[in-house]
């Protein structure tokens, strides 16, 4: 299936080249968009951004529906690749387009995407303040998935802000709705969020149970990104329990998936967990090396929280080396 997708994307790209040379920009834009959407299914983030960028350059300025798809597919690619600065530019462009269309779903999408981008950049408090703005717009649009996405983003921002009780309440209510409507991918995301709350609250048994529920759903749905998140959570949980062998196995599997899907923020998180693991095992040099690796990725994607944590991890490792 992946080979077929690659060939289809290559065919679309070649067709776009042909139409652009023939001075048929609208047809070129159409084929570039289709190529970008096909490439997105195999996590070829740079190629997605390139094809979507060409589509935007060639598309009609008043074709709001096509430009929305082009911006959204490029935004997802930029987010996965950790290109935060470019991501903000596309968020602004989507916001402007939403104002032009007046579509409630478009406004909700922008609010959710901004919330996630803020949280992933280490701006959790700002994200938590913004998140509720998406919910009334999603309700007006009658889009259950978008409304639950808004609640999920809000719960995640609350958790990252340290407001665990409210985060758990928001996520639990949304989880009940996700299960009632059969939205399995959203069920998994909410379970992972609740697992993270449980881990940070010290309830490791509950965290393990929830994370394994989410992992089972993601594997059933062939959701590699969700599977990676689940393994990171399980690895962090095993580390806190003192099961270092299980932690290393889970984090190693997560690293493979993070690189296969191009999720740089996941890679940074895994490096930082590996640093803590090495330090717990008495390997201060390994802990420092992992912290440095996490710092490099955090700097590359502009993640302030991970960058700060990497410095703390490195300091702890250097202190252990000096003793």
Topology:
Blueprint: H1 2-21, H2 25-40, H3 45-58, H4 64-81, H5 84-101, H6 104-120, H7 124-130, H8 134-141, H9 144-160, H10 164-181, H11 184-200, H12 204-220, H13 224-241, H14 244-261, H15 264-280, H16 284-301, H17 304-322
Helix pairs in contact: 1-2, 2-3, 2-4, 3-4, 4-5, 5-6, 6-7, 6-8, 6-9, 7-9, 8-9, 9-10, 9-11, 10-11, 11-12, 11-13, 12-13, 13-14, 13-15, 14-15, 15-16, 15-17, 16-17
- The topology string of helices and strands comes to HHHHHHHHHHHHHHHHH
Number of helices: 17
Judging from the principal axes of the Cα atoms, what is the shape?
globular
Output the structural class: mainly alpha
* Portion of residues within helices: over 70%
The largest pleated sheet is described as: none
The fraction of residues in strands falls at under 5%
Poorly predicted regions are none
Distance between the amino and carboxyl termini: 54 Å
Mean pLDDT: 92
Please report the total strand number as a whole number: 0
Integer-rounded radius of gyration: 21 Å
Overview of this protein structure:
- This protein is 86% helix and 0% strand.
- The chain has 17 helices and no strands.
- The mean pLDDT is 92.
Brief summary of the model shown:
By secondary structure, the chain is mostly helical. The protein has 17 helices and no strands. The longest helix is centred in the N-terminal third of the chain and has 20 residues, at 2-21.
